Amino acid sequence: MALVPTVTRREPAPIEPVSDVSAVKTLFNQLFEAEQTSKTQTAQDLRDKLNELRQKLGDEKFKEALNKLIQEADDKFLQFL
Predict the structure, then answer these.
(1) Nearest CA to 58 among 31, 22, 24?
(2) What is the residue extent of each domain of the chain?
């Protein structure tokens, strides 16, 4: 009887949830880019996503994330905000 090699499956590592600040930053960066390139429908969709995220996080957590972004932002991004 021949031995057949077996392949062991490794379970992927659990994906860590994206931090609130990171999610807000990503959406704002995408919105900034959409505004710069005159993609109005994309910009509106991103505004809607930001609003949904704000509702999900609550106003206080959203403000905390926004304040963190303001501390890290460059002048161009601050003007946009």
Answers:
(1) 24
(2) 20-80
